[in-house]
Amino acid sequence: MDLRSGRSLSAAGGSSAACKTAELAHLLQWECTQLLELYEMKEPFILEVTLPEVHIITLPQPSSDLSVDKQLSTMCSALHQCLKLLETVMCREEEEFGIQEGGDYRKMQNTVKDRLGDLLHCMKLLTKGELPSHTEPTDGSKNGNTFALKIWIYRVLLELKHWIKCAIVILLNMQSLQETKRRVTRKRGAREMHGSEGEGGRERVWRSTGRRSAMEGKVAKGRCKAK
Amino acid sequence: MCNFLLWVLFVTLLTRKGYCQSPHYPAPKIVGLDSDSPSQSLTVSWENDLSSAVRFYDLEVLHTETNETVHSETVMVAPRTDGTVHKWKWISPTPLECTSLSVRIRSNLPQVSSEWSKPWNLTGKDVLEDGRAQMYPQDKVVPVGSNTTFCCIVPDGKKFGSIMVGRGKLPFTRISRRSYVSVRINQPASSSTGTNVFCLYQNEELADGSVVFVGYPPEPRNLICETRDLQSVECGWSLERVTHLYGTRRTFYSLNERECESANGFSATEHKCRFNMTLAPGEQNWTLTARNHLGKVELMDTADLNHRVRPRAPEVVVELLGAWNASLRWHWVVPWYGKLPLVCQVWIFSEGNPKPTPHIYVGPGLTQALLRDLWPDSKYAAQVRCATQQNFWKWGDWSSEIRFKTKEDRPDPVNVWVQMHSELDGCIVWKPLSKSQSHGQLKGYEVSWSSPGNRVQRNSVLSTGPYYVPISLEGLASDYVVTVMAWNNASDSPAISITVPSSPEDGDGALSEMVSNGGTFHLSWPPSPNSTCGYVVTWYPTSWNRTCSLDWEKLPGDNSSARIQSESFIAGERYTFSVYACTPGAPLLLEKRLGYVEEQAPTGTVTRLMADQIDSSVRLSWEPVPLEGQRGFIRGYLIYLYNVTQLQLIENITDPSIMSYTATQLSYTTYKFTVKAYTSAGAGKEATVSIKLDPFTDLLIMEILIAAGSMTVLLVLVTALCYTKREWMKKTFYPEIPEPRVPEWKPTQAFGAQTLDMTPCAHSYVHIVETRRRTSGKEELKVVLEDSEEGEQWGNGPPDMDSDGQSFLRYYNQVVGEDPGLAPSGTGSSGLSSRSTGSARTEVTYTGIQTSSTSACSSACIPAAMEAPLSAGYRPQKASIPAQAEVSDDPQLDAGTEYQPQCSWKLDSPEETSLDSSLGSPTSVNSSQFLLPEPSGEENCSPAPSTTWFRNLLSGSGKP
After folding, report:
1. What are φ and ψ of residue B534, in 5° steps?
2. Secondary structure letter of residue B791 according to DSSP
3. Contact state of A147 with B206 under an 8 Å Cβ cutoff
4. Count of Cβ atoms closer than 10 Å to residue A161 Cβ
5. How far apart are the CA of B70 and the nearest CA of chain A, in angstroms?
6. How many CA atoms lie within 13 A of B592 on its CB side?
7. Is the ipTM of this complex over 0.90?
8. Distance in angstroms (rounded) separating the CA atoms of residues A32 and A108
């Protein structure tokens, strides 16, 4: 799937829902990068300064002890907060600066907001009952002056990009796990067909799958911490 | 000394007490210090006692930390009777937060001042309690061109770096231990999100920043208020310039102190303010107030809104009335409009005509308009807007565009004509119907022709053409009638009939000529009494007269003139125009003309250009330029003579019917003539012909022939004379020689008395060696005397060494035919002799050359002498060289072929050359012997031929 072309998810080449969701996340990541670039063009001073690394969304990083579903649920919560923050950003910018509809920056904001909503919807479908806990983010826009608001908006966009990147890692892990499960199930079915498969072999398969899941969870954690 | 000490003590006391400055007035007492950070102002309040008459006070503002005076001012106060508190307001150029300020005051009397009051402090943000980095002012709104001072307060432990705007650093000043100040001067308008000014630490890390919004105060113009429905007011205005202030700093509007919600939104782009209200009759004032952070402006409009009604857009529907008309109906959202006398404007946009056609309709409560004269099967779009007819203010809003398409109708009649190429062959031609004539989707054309009593012939043609049908009439007995009609989805067009002209058009000879005026032909002709329905003018390119390409124009009425204009006219193309009178029967041809829409120079040349010499003149003749190359009416011909380097005009023939020219008095040399045809547009291409004038050619030939004839006659006469006088000549030049007396020969005596000498005759052979000189191409004969050995081969015995070696030419009288045994067989010599037989019975034959000591032995040598030369040595003199070459293959004949006589009379040996001179001596007719003695001198035989023929003539042989 050409992520930059903006084609619909249904047209994606992936076979599983996780794959399609991952592709959607990839597309959102590219759009978020574009949005950041547009913001940097609007506020070029951002590129001249070094900002201290402070996160707006404070959620526990995905742990290897958590299952992929749990990690996914956590990621949904983070992205939900990102969506709320982005909506706040748009509202505050309109109030403060009277941002006109139709500009490139505003268009991209709307695109990212809509795509983020789609991604959240897809990810919720993948959680299988692990409903994410919605935590409303802290609105830091009204604490300071206009300059602080601009810094905060930039942080929100960086935060959004960060969590999308983490979501991609988790979704790819999930996709890999699903493919492994499907492959094992196909092999087991074939063995049962030949009557040569025992219980011990099945247990080995499950243990192997568990180890793989734990290992990929570590990878995901490591990637998210890498920011 | 004592006095001196007392004086010092007095002065010291005075100084300490301050009596020199304010001996009687105590310092004023500051009672209050108020500050306003956004406006960067501080207000000092102080009081003095009631009895004080001080009117001037000195005030000082200092940086508390450095005790540096920032501002000092002497203020004058009015005498107060109601209290003793005075106030002084000062606006600081530097934000008050930048550092702590101290204010003090003293009374200023004309000669002395009071002490400074106790300073009052205004604590800044650079105090220790607030250790974070800060920047001031924050979110300040300033006008374009103003200066703004920014300060950056860095926390302890951090090193200040710079204050920047964008990528540029501002110069800074340190005003306290933690505070640094920069001034940005003459600021330009900022963007919608303001101008960012930020402070960096020395390590480029961001300390803090602020945003300054630089813009303009509001400046609305042209406030106009009106009503759309008499129940609301709507005021609009325009903006003189953009304020560059947006969001919370945008301009807010109010109309008569009521907020304009439509104009005050975050993203409002409409500069209108509307709200419902009950309109009072009469004029009212409408005041618009615009304000932002930088100012406030008021605009006012006074009007009676009952006279300012601008109707809203109606909602329009269309109703089709047949193919040519439609009805527009609309209704008003505001029912009240139905009571107003309205004027409405309907604009019709038709397909292919984007420029709208306005139609005006007037009436009270107008709700419909009839659209007439529309075209069938055409797409239209219509819009309606209305205004009040009385107190016309403005046109209302346009309705939304409504589109419709009219129905189809039967096509218009077809414009048809018949062009006859001959009496029986012609074309039915018609003009294709345009879209406006088709009145729908044209399907095709139906063509039929017939004469009374004959069957009707039909032909269908598609709408795409071709728009002609060739016809061939079956006879001339009666008039043929042609009918053409078109049809579409709606119906057939009215059938149009035309009677075929009874006679074809004639040739183009002697037709009047005309040239268009600016692309338009003006034709006029005498009215014809036969015309009952007008005239028809047809035209076609003259060179296409056998095709069906024709255009025409029908002129109804009695108008006997026409202006013919066509986009198909081609410059330089000859057109044939025909004028017909329209009659109830066949059209009657009145006249024909030839015309050019624009004449050009000929592109062709005259044809068959020829030049003929007539004595010393040249007559040029040619034929006209072909029609395709004329490009205009030929007005004449230009005759040029090529004169080495240029063409010299020698004649301008202005009569194009003259197609010959004679150039006279020319010298006998080569001439090149050029002929150009020309039209009114200029001369065309040249045709060139060359001719060489030969002086008296025929006379010279005649002279040669006469001379040759004269010579022939003279020769014949001389020959005849000589022949007739040959006897005389013979006697004169060759007198009769007495016949020699031969002693009587007695064979018996001879055989008996004398013994035949059998000794071989001493003879000498001449061996002629042929040496070919390739260089000269001729053969040269080399005479070599044979030695004795060779002679042995030829002779039968040893050579006679005793002989004197003198050579003799031996003569033999031969009578050919009388003694065949003596005639050599198969030799050229015999041949030559035989040919001589016809002319003379007796002929001298050279059969050999030999030397003999005695005449007696000569007879004995006859066989040998006859054999050897005839077998190989002698060749006829006429024999050709190639024949010899063929023979040379025979080794036996090689020796013989080497002998080639140089001439007819060439002798075989040098000894016999002396005999050649004897050839001219008289000889006996019956003898081969020369009668004259031989000359002593040696003569070559080669020049002999000059006299040979004459000698032969006299001898009667006729052969050399």
Report:
1. 100, -160
2. H
3. no
4. 19
5. 28
6. 18
7. no
8. 8
